[in-house]
Design a protein that fits this description.
heterodimer, A: mainly beta, four-stranded antiparallel beta sheet
C-alpha cells in the first residue's frame, strides 16, 4: 500500500513551458486535492475532486487545470508556466462514505510533494 | 476574512522538554480544528482534530491539543519531546460555511536540541 504518490519530486521549468504533475492514490479514496505551499504561507487549495469525473476550483485555480478520469489518478496541468507558480505542490486524498460538504474535513492523506521552480 | 495564525515560525526545544505550539483562528463561529505534522521529505500527517465535545483532544505520537473558545486558540502540546518530533507543524481550521475547505496556518518548524 503506497498511499499517495507524486511525480516528479523536483522540476525546473522555463517561463511558458507546460507540464503535468502526477498524483496517484491506492486507497480507493473518493476525494482528492491539489495544494500549493509557498514559503511562509499556509497551504492553498488549487483544485479538488469528489469523485471520478467531478472537479471543482479551490482558492487559487488560475493557471492550472485538472482532470479525474479514474478514482486513482488526479493530474495537475500547468499550461503556461510563470514564475508565480514556483512552489511546492502537494496532492492529498480522503474518503467519505456519506459525501456532503463536511467530507472535506475527513483525514487527508498527503503525498511527499513536488518542488517546482519556474525560471 | 477567516484566517489562521501560527505566531512562531521556528521553535527550538531541548530533547525531553515540554512543548507548546500556538494556533489562533479568526472566525465567527467555532470551526473544526486540526493539527497536521510534516516530517522532512514527507507529506503531511494528521495528528489530531477537534469537532465538538471535550476541549482537550488526544492525538497520535503523544500529542494533545486544547480548544479555548474565549481565546480562539487550539494550541498543541507534548509533555516531553523526542528528537523524532523535529518537523513542521500546521494548524488548520474547517469553517462551517458554503466553502467547506480547510484554511491553513503558515506552519511552525520545531527544532530539537540534543
Amino acid at each position: 500500500n503506497a498511499g499517495v504518490t507524486q511525480t516528479p519530486k523536483f522540476r525546473i521549468l522555463k517561463i511558458g513551458q507546460s507540464m503535468t504533475l502526477q498524483c496517484t492514490q491506492d486507497m480507493n479514496h473518493n476525494y482528492m486535492y491539489w495544494y500549493r505551499q509557498d514559503p511562509g504561507m499556509g497551504l492553498k487549495l488549487i483544485y479538488y475532486s469528489v469523485g471520478a469525473g467531478i472537479t471543482d476550483k479551490g482558492e487559487v485555480p488560475n493557471g492550472y487545470n485538472v482532470s479525474r478520469s479514474t478514482t486513482e489518478d488526479f493530474p495537475l496541468r500547468l499550461e503556461l508556466a510563470a514564475p508565480s507558480q514556483t512552489s511546492v505542490y502537494f496532492c492529498a486524498s480522503s474518503y467519505s462514505l456519506a459525501g456532503g460538504h463536511l467530507s472535506s474535513y475527513n483525514e487527508q492523506f498527503f503525498g511527499p510533494g513536488t518542488r517546482l521552480t519556474v525560471l | 476574512a477567516q484566517s489562521v495564525t501560527q505566531p512562531d515560525i521556528h521553535i527550538t526545544v531541548s530533547e525531553g522538554a515540554s512543548l507548546e505550539l500556538r494556533c489562533n483562528y479568526s472566525y465567527g463561529a467555532t470551526p473544526y480544528l486540526f493539527w497536521y505534522v510534516q516530517s522532512p521529505g514527507q507529506g503531511l500527517q494528521l495528528l489530531l482534530k477537534y469537532f465538538s465535545g471535550d476541549t482537550l483532544v488526544q492525538g497520535i505520537k503523544g500529542f494533545e491539543a486544547e480548544f479555548k473558545r474565549s481565546q480562539s486558540s487550539f494550541n498543541l502540546r507534548k509533555p516531553s519531546v523526542h528528537w523524532s518530533d523535529a518537523a513542521e507543524y500546521f494548524c488548520a481550521v474547517g469553517p462551517m460555511d458554503s466553502n467547506y475547505q480547510l484554511i491553513w496556518g503558515a506552519g511552525t518548524k520545531l527544532i530539537i536540541k540534543p
